[in-house]
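Troubleshooting log. The previous structure file for this entry was overwritten by mistake, so regenerating from the original sequence record. Sequence copied from the archived sheet and checked twice against the printout by T.R.
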Amino acid sequence: MTVATYVYTFACHENERELCQLELMTLFKPSSEMRIASDSYIRSERCILPGRSPFIHGRLDVLGEADSIAELFPVARKVRLQQDETFKVVCLKAGDHPPDYDQARKFEKEIGMCIHGIAQMKQPKVTFGLIKIGQKWIFGQWTESNKSWQVHQQKPQNYSTGLGVTLARALVNIAVPEVENHRLLDPCCGMGTVVIEALSMGIDTRGNDLNALAVRGARVNLPYFGYDANRITLGDMMNLEEKYDSAIFDMPYNLCSVLPDQEQRAMLVKLRELCKRAVVVSTEWVQEHLLESGWTIEQHITVRKGTFVRHIWVCV
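Regenerated output below.
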């Protein structure tokens, strides 16, 4: 039976579990079949590029499912590859009760024998996958996640307290689950980490910062990865006027001083003028400030790195 769904496998570090769950639930909606564990999967009708999320390993485009491997043979026999297309079959190391090594090789061979094409284990043009979910075996075409975004960790300009690339990428997905015709703002963009991740996903993004040194660094970092430095502006966010669909606001903080409450509230009020939805990042508990500024808090999680804690607030 052909099923028009996709299965995504993913994994995350224990410290990133809340972040991973929030990102994936935002991308795939709560109705998706979802399991959070060390090696996990999501089944969804939504098709996204696997490399968009820092946590997704790959996507299986489902061709069929059955109670046993043998019942998938007719599905595999329907596969027709081009003359120059080579293939291989892999048992995914995820799902419910994955087979041991010998079983996996046996299943791969059995399915592979049914496919009309040239088998090639090294660098095939097409990869097919098998995964067991519940009591069902699922067969489909496998697309490995593109991790090319990891090169963004090697920015020419950086600072130690800035957002990491994995966190920034997840925040972009939380802020912008639907990329098309969406405008994103980072009003305190620092070295441009969020802006770079958003631009790499094809999102129309602008960054701004009051710190001239940060803006100078961001204007070096963006062209280094092929993006326009003019997407970064220098100035006080209180003077911004353009409207955006959403924003990622990493609230300014200093290890030696605390931003006064009045200034924090004024910035959050201004943020509401600039966008309809915001993901706010803070090192302090700012729930009261958010509510007093007119925001409604949809979600709150924490992300920890050692003793350093960041609060993530999803607001509308």
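The two ends are 42 Å apart (CA to CA). Archived copy saved in two places this time.
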